[in-house]
């Protein structure tokens, strides 16, 4: 091995599954196999001159864990390799990533366009937070390209979208929206949480920035919060680098270590979850009392063709409508024995959520119905349980 214990291959040219296990690994002088957890705030310098060189940038080593940390850097480099991005910055949560990706690009007098169907807290940042600092925003129906075109103004700095959307799993045409953004002189940020880095590559589709809540599939085992922002080196340096260093939403090295180990199994987990989701979606569609199943991998999904073009699978999430409105959905959810009621997603454990009364409770009734979040809608995050056990659980719940 070379003295730095680095692999002798160009990992960037290899497959995602290989990158997930080896990408970004740097080893200490012990040559440890498993990624080391550098639970340290600071770094010691041999001399005053060495400290000076770190601070003036002539020696690129670590300074302070709010800026960077070896374990966090491994996570960032593994994510950058997987995403095909030049640069990545980790954050303490997905919301820290989304907030920094937007705030880093705008100043008072600028304008932002976003799809209406956004994760609740993302919608808060766009609708409530940015305007407080003089940044106006327009929300559009993300599936209607004419609305994106019409919303762009000379001062529009960036577009934000999520696809598939949460919770109704609509598909937005990332390539087309990126093109509209670029013609308008704006950038496109894609929140790629629901698709996962395994099944959708927004940078290849023309996006300028991709953000993840690593809390979801990247951890995948319900343990810790984390986020990551990915883009070109210039996008990250110009917009994100200083904002994160100076304002401090840093990922803890411990969480970075958990997420690194999560990445090792991401490919396996997401592939299995998506395969189970496809089977389960078909089974749900045949059950009594379920009036509609929304799964991007099913031919009856309104944007099935676009989903097939843009995503490598139908994904790990299903939405479905239970007859009888809120009472019907509550009774159905309460009858599930294996699937847990929670508001998270991407976990090894399957999770059912009633969006209207939990994740999307903050929205007005009108805003909810505009998004298709009906009282009978349930969202399902498919876990790693055996497909037949999940199908049995839903079947007994549907029979009442
Ligand atoms: C969970 C989630 C977020 C926020 O991530 P946190 O890690 O909870 O801060 C943002 N966007 C989407 C689509 C999410 O599912």
From TrEMBL:
<dbReference type="GO" id="GO:0016846">
    <property type="term" value="F:carbon-sulfur lyase activity"/>
</dbReference>
<dbReference type="GO" id="GO:0030170">
    <property type="term" value="F:pyridoxal phosphate binding"/>
</dbReference>
<dbReference type="InterPro" id="IPR015421">
    <property type="entry name" value="PyrdxlP-dep_Trfase_major"/>
</dbReference>
<comment type="subunit">
    <text>Homotetramer.</text>
</comment>
<dbReference type="InterPro" id="IPR006234">
    <property type="entry name" value="O-succ-hSer_sulfhydrylase"/>
</dbReference>
<protein>
    <recommendedName>
        <fullName>O-succinylhomoserine sulfhydrylase</fullName>
        <ecNumber>2.5.1.-</ecNumber>
    </recommendedName>
</protein>
<comment type="similarity">
    <text>Belongs to the trans-sulfuration enzymes family. MetZ subfamily.</text>
</comment>
<dbReference type="GO" id="GO:0019346">
    <property type="term" value="P:transsulfuration"/>
</dbReference>
<dbReference type="GO" id="GO:0016765">
    <property type="term" value="F:transferase activity, transferring alkyl or aryl (other than methyl) groups"/>
</dbReference>
<dbReference type="InterPro" id="IPR015422">
    <property type="entry name" value="PyrdxlP-dep_Trfase_small"/>
</dbReference>
<dbReference type="GO" id="GO:0071268">
    <property type="term" value="P:homocysteine biosynthetic process"/>
</dbReference>
<dbReference type="InterPro" id="IPR000277">
    <property type="entry name" value="Cys/Met-Metab_PyrdxlP-dep_enz"/>
</dbReference>
<comment type="pathway">
    <text>Amino-acid biosynthesis; L-methionine biosynthesis via de novo pathway; L-homocysteine from O-succinyl-L-homoserine: step 1/1.</text>
</comment>
<keyword id="KW-0028">Amino-acid biosynthesis</keyword>
<dbReference type="GO" id="GO:0071266">
    <property type="term" value="P:'de novo' L-methionine biosynthetic process"/>
</dbReference>
<keyword id="KW-0808">Transferase</keyword>
<dbReference type="InterPro" id="IPR015424">
    <property type="entry name" value="PyrdxlP-dep_Trfase"/>
</dbReference>
<keyword id="KW-0663">Pyridoxal phosphate</keyword>
<dbReference type="GO" id="GO:0005737">
    <property type="term" value="C:cytoplasm"/>
</dbReference>
<comment type="function">
    <text>Catalyzes the formation of L-homocysteine from O-succinyl-L-homoserine (OSHS) and hydrogen sulfide.</text>
</comment>
<keyword id="KW-0456">Lyase</keyword>
<keyword id="KW-0486">Methionine biosynthesis</keyword>
<feature type="modified residue" description="N6-(pyridoxal phosphate)lysine">
    <location>
        <position position="216"/>
    </location>
</feature>
<dbReference type="Pfam" id="PF01053">
    <property type="entry name" value="Cys_Met_Meta_PP"/>
</dbReference>
